[in-house]
Every structure is written in structure tokens, then in C-alpha cells.
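Researcher: Please translate sequence to C-alpha cells.
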Amino acid sequence: MGRTRPAIRDAAEKPGSGTGKRGAVVAALMLSMALAALDATIVSTAVPQIVGDLGGFSVFSWLFSGYLLAVTVTLPVYGKLSDAFGRKPVLVAGSVLFLVGSLLCATAWSMAALIAFRIIQGLGGGALQGTVQTLAADLYPLKERPKIQAKLSTVWATSAIGGPALGGVLAAYADWRWIFLINLPIGVLALWLIVRHLHEPRREPASKPRIDWAGALAVFACGGVLLTALVQGGVAWDWLSAPSIALFGTGLVLVAVVVAVERRAAEPIIPGWVWRRRTIAAVNLACGALGLLMIAPTVFLPTYAQAVLGLAPIAAGFVFSVWTLSWSLSAALSQHVYRRIGFRNTAMIGIGTATVILLAFPFLPYPGEPWQPTLLMLLLGGALGLFQLPLLVGVQSSVGWAERGTATASVLFCRQTGQTVGAALFGAIANGVLATRLGGAGDLDSVTRTLDSGAPGEQVRHAVAEAVHAVYLGAAIAAGLAFLVLLFVAPRRFPVLTHDEGTQDTEGTEVTDPSPAPRGAP
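Model: Translation complete:
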């Protein structure tokens, strides 16, 4: 490792142009994060207009699945590339690819073309999501990281929730193609700020970086096949049908191929230390469980609010969205907790509280009042803010610059994978309960159609309530598993790197962040 500059100090210690430059970079990171989050959900309310123009109703779900699959499977690849070549070139290349994909989506002439271009968008979105989080850790010392991470969490949550509303407005009053064209000015501004103001220090690695392209291809293929099987199973075909069996079988073969290729690679895309180090392995598993449990409120609560509580879509969206407010506030304040009791203990308090809250949901009275699930969601957001952010900051602080991109990407990859597994698992649970309660003639799609056509009957309302209660019980089990992982797998105190050469201290000791600061900050 070559010479590096010391970590960034508080901007107040050295006023001047550097503060403005760091602010410009942070603005670019927030804009990039907003684009990546927005495009995961913005298409949902514009589907009728898109299908009416391009056709292809039977495959429109791939507008979402294709984008999310591309984002998920590329996260480990971009993490490794950012460690080898720096964050800036990866973020710039990902931004350009995302913007090219957006432009192509706006010119799509068929549903097949639009799906293909959405996948291109997702290939760029993976770079935005992972590299932005890594750069945030590079820019700020340990004591300031919760502030920037809380800002990014707020941007992500706001964009993810506001995406459907914005997509609906653009589709109704302009044209659905503006859903993708609106990315261009925002993305170009973010790209210009990054190119103009982010200057990473020169690093001289001990040897020339070697990229494991065979491993990258194997990881991409394996992740794509397995995630496709999970996303489409029970939707496009039955779980025990030939397509599902073929995809899962192929995925298992590719898992063996990934393991074999990565063991032989000099610089593997997914290095073994990601799972050998207790800190990172525990956080990966815990965040995988987080992704799984998040499906309960994000996917099923809006249906519950409309079918059981009888709320209009906007009011149902409010019941769902309140957790983002408390999540962001709790994340911003979490540093005051983990500085006193440590990363692990703070996260355990958060996920332990979340377990109790999720278990309380099935005990809500039927049909109940809207304030009851709203209060639970407000409390759940606060609990998860204490859980996720300390773990992410703890992992980023336990590794040096040359490993931070890979470590961050592994955490995000596990959370994304958990969400995919959760959607498949909880969807199957909900459909099973609905089928039992409605005599084999009910599933989530039929309930959605009933809501679109008018108020559901009492039998349907009871069935939806029981299905969502079962899903929340499953989410509580996932939260409990995350608690056990932190209790038995995670070290009692996370190691904190004291300088880039690799010396570690334990959390709770006053240490400075080891990472060299990109220029543009004091």
C-alpha cells in the first residue's frame, strides 16, 4: 500500500473550499442513491400505460424482476472492482451505464426491448448502490458516518416510496417514457459533480490488480439463475414444475462452479475472508434476515390496509410509509447508543425490539383501527434503524480501504438476496392461507383484482387478515434468527481498524478512521 493521506477531520476544524467540495460529492451520492432506489419502484403505477402501448402483459413483471436481478448479482463484482481500481471509475462507469439504459428504455419499441433495457439499467444500478455506500464510509471518519448513512437511508426510503406516485403522475399527465427520461438531467448532474469534485488519492498496490473475470461471470450466472427461480416460482409456474426444478438444479451446479473457480482465483470476486471473519459473516447473515423480514410491511401491509382496514390507496400508503421516518431518525441517533454499548449490543436491542413488534401484529383486533398498525410500523422503523446502521458502520470500520468495497457489497448483496427469498417465501405462505380460507380459489392476485373492482367481502377480509398475520409471524421468526446470529456468531465487540496497514483495536476505544480521504474535504 502506497502513501496515503490522513482521515478527514470535521469540516469545522478547517473551513474553506474543501468543505464545499465534500458537500458537492455528498450531493452527488444522494442523487445517485435516489436514482437507484427510484427506478426499482417507479414503473409499478405506469404498467397499464406501458402495456397499452407496447403489449406484453404476460411478461411485464420482468420490468421489476430484471432490474432487481441485475442490481443484486452485480453488487459483489462492483465491490471488488472498486477495491482494485478505486471508487470513482466504478461509480462513473456505473452512472454512464445507468443513464444509457434509461435513454434506451425511453426509446423501447416492444416489451421485450424494454425488459432488456431495464436489465442494462440494473447493471448500472448495482454500481450506484454499492459504490455510493462505500464512498460514504471513505469520506467520513467513524464518528461522522452515521450522519451520512442516515441521509442516504432517508433518500433511499423516500425515493422507494415516492417512486410509484411519481411514475403514476408522469404516466397520467405526460407519457410513460418520461419515467426514464427524468433520470437523465438528475444523473448527468450527479455525474458532473463526481467527475469535478471527487479526487481519490493515488495508491500504489503491491502488485498489478488482477480481475477474476471467470469468477465474475460465474457469480452473475449463478445469481441470475437462482434469483430467477425464486422470483418466478409460484408466479409464472408452479414450484414443483419442470421450469422450477430445472432452474434450481442448474443453480446448484453453478454454485459448485463458483466455489471451484473462486478457490483457484488469485483475486476472487467473493473472497473467502468475507465468510471467515466472524464480524462480516454475522452481519451478512443478519442483514439477509433483515431483507427477508422487510417484505412483510413493504409488500403485504398496503394490501392489509386496503382490504382489512378499508383505507384508500393513499391512506394505505401512509400507514406503510411512516416507518421510513422513524427508521431514518433512529439511524441518525444510533451513534449515541453504539458509542456507549457497542455495535453488536445496539443491533441486538434493535432487532430484539423488532421481533416483539412483529409478533404483536397478529394480535391486532379485527378489523381494528388504522392507528394501530401505524403505531407498530412507527416503532418497527425505530427498532430497525438501531439494527441496520450500526452493523453497516461496524463492518466498514473493521476493514481497510482496499477491502471496504467488497465488505460493503457483501452486506448489501445479502440484504437484497434476503428480500428476494422473502418475496418468494412469504408469497407462498400468504397464497396458502388464502387458498385454505377461500376454498382453494384465492391468491394475492385475485385479492388485488377484487380491490380494484370494489370493496371485498367479509370472507375475503378475514382471509387477508389471517394471511398477513401469518406473514408477520414469519417475519418475526426471521428477526429472531438475526438476533441469534448476533448473539452466537458475532464477536462481542467489533474490531475497529486504527490505520490502513491493518492494525485493529476494539470498538469503544477512541480511534480515528483509517481510510485516506478523497480530496475535496478538509
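Researcher: Any highlights?
Model: The longest helix spans residues 401-437.
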